[in-house]
Specification:
binds iron/sulfur cluster, single chain, eleven-stranded mixed β-sheet, 11 helices, 29% helix, binds S-adenosyl-L-homocysteine, TIM Barrel
Length: 411
């Protein structure tokens, strides 16, 4: 894949780097990325690798794909030249096109990826965000193009669901982000060397990009099991968080079958209001949701469930709501994350006043939850929570300029 960089001027301080990539001719071949081990073994056997060797070959290939991040069979130096050639004939390791790479003034990065059509469909564009912080780096990954739900404060929710992402497309977001960040070992590292998890740039993954991950359960499960595989990308399941608006039956399955940390988009403490803000509440109400949280496999004081609460001025930010929130969560091993509302073009809400957020946080703090306010990150490049929306409906420049003057709480 050839990549050319154009540094484009924009009228904020954020450098915008547009990256155009030309896809190779291999796009038609099946991609090995995103296959479960057993699927990869089957694929190799079908390609003529003797059955007794297939498991070992997959172990070698897995290492190159996920520990070393190679995107070319030629770089798999402990495989014979013949096998490398055969693999390249049959399979692809093709990355998505990178339509845009933006870097915020605060170091947050956002990529707009274009994935090729699946079957008769059109190519799809999705966004992935990297948020560097002191001592950690979080990658915010998308699970769907658009969303079937329509939470009233969320930009993605204004876009219809285009389709679920495949395991390949979910895992690719992690691979390509690490590639662009220079987070894989260099070529000179001897084959077989495992890389310690300390010192990596991507230390955490959150399923908090576009889409509702629990409406794409099987693909998200397969992708997260690959991302947490100890012989590959090796991200600890504690450092992977899946955020859901409240698909109750699949919450239990997430704990049982994936075992990652859980975040719940709560946002309201009364059903009447939550029905409006987070419409999935009409199907599974607050009581049912909290019951699922109480039973979440693996939740403990050492491994708490995160409750996200977006601060909407005059809607859900009263001090009575704060009191009710801590009462509701009693008995659940919980963390509370207050998220200042991030605006988008024509959004029907405003962010709560900073003093109100602090007063709300004070009540939450006094109930024993530490530092609950989430600092907005990457707002200048529209990478903050709830601002993602794909290329099909990109933001007009005029709207972007208007939003850039919106106040950032606490600044
Ligand atoms: N669909 C999943 C995950 C994606 S949204 C979910 O709803 O949990 C990730 C988080 O961003 C959710 O907590 C969501 O409620 C929050 N969010 C959405 N729009 C937002 C906005 N405009 N400002 C702040 N947070 C927002
Ligand atoms: Fe979908 Fe989550 Fe946005 Fe709701 S908040 S519309 S579930 S992405």
């Amino acid at each position: 894949m050839t990549v050319s960089l154009n540094i484009a001027a924009n009228n904020s301080n954020a450098p915008v780097v547009a990256v155009t990539a030309q896809r190779g001719v291999a796009a038609e071949k099946p991609n090995l990325i995103g296959l479960a081990r057993e699927e990869m073994i089957e694929a190799l056997v079908e390609a003529g690798v003797p059955e007794r060797q297939a498991k070992m070959r997959v172990q070698q290939i897995w290492y190159w794909l996920y520990v070393r991040g190679v995107s070319n069979f030629d770089n798999m130096t402990n495989l014979s030249k013949t096998l490398r050639g055969e693999l390249a004939e049959r399979f692809s390791l093709e990355r998505p096109e990178i339509l845009e790479e933006q870097i915020s003034v605060d170091g947050t990065r956002k990529w707009l990826f274009r994935f090729p059509p699946r079957g008769a469909g059109a190519p799809v564009d999705i966004e992935t965000v990297y948020i560097p912080e002191e001592g950690r780096g979080t990658l915010c990954v998308s699970s769907q193009v658009g969303c079937t739900l329509s939470c009233t404060f969320c930009h993605t929710g204004t876009q219809r669901l285009v389709r679920n992402l495949t395991p390949e497309e979910i895992v690719m977001q992690v691979l390509v982000a690490r590639e662009r960040l220079g987070d894989f070992p260099d070529k000179e590292t001897p084959p077989g060397t495992y890389v310690p998890s300390e010192g990596r740039l991507v230390t955490n993954v959150v399923m908090m990009g576009m889409g509702e991950p629990l409406y794409n359960f099987d693909h998200v499960k397969q992708a997260l099991l690959i991302v947490s595989d100890g012989d590959g990308l090796a991200l600890s399941k504690r450092r992977i968080t899946l955020s859901t608006s409240g698909h109750v039956p699949n919450i239990q399955r997430t704990g049982d079958e994936i075992g990652v940390s859980l975040a719940i988009s709560l946002h309201a403490v009364r059903d009447e209001l939550r029905d409006e803000l987070v419409p999935i509440n009409k199907k599974w109400n607050i009581a049912a949701l909290l019951e699922a949280c109480r039973n979440y496999p693996g939740a403990s004081n050492a491994r708490r469930i995160t409750f996200e609460y977006v601060m909407l001025k005059g809607i859900n930010d009263s001090l009575e709501d704060a009191v009710k929130l801590v009462r509701l969560l009693k008995g659940i091993p919980a963390k509370i994350n207050l998220i200042p509302f991030n605006p988008w073009p024509n959004s029907p809400y405003e962010c709560s006043e900073w003093e109100q957020i602090e007063a709300f946080a004070e009540i939450v703090n006094r109930a024993g939850y530490a530092s609950p306010i989430r600092t907005p990150r990457g707002r200048d490049i529209f990478a903050a929570c709830g601002q993602l929306k794909s290329e099909s409906e990109r933001m007009k420049k005029r709207d972007r300029d208007a939003l850039e003057s919106a106040p950032v709480p606490g600044s």
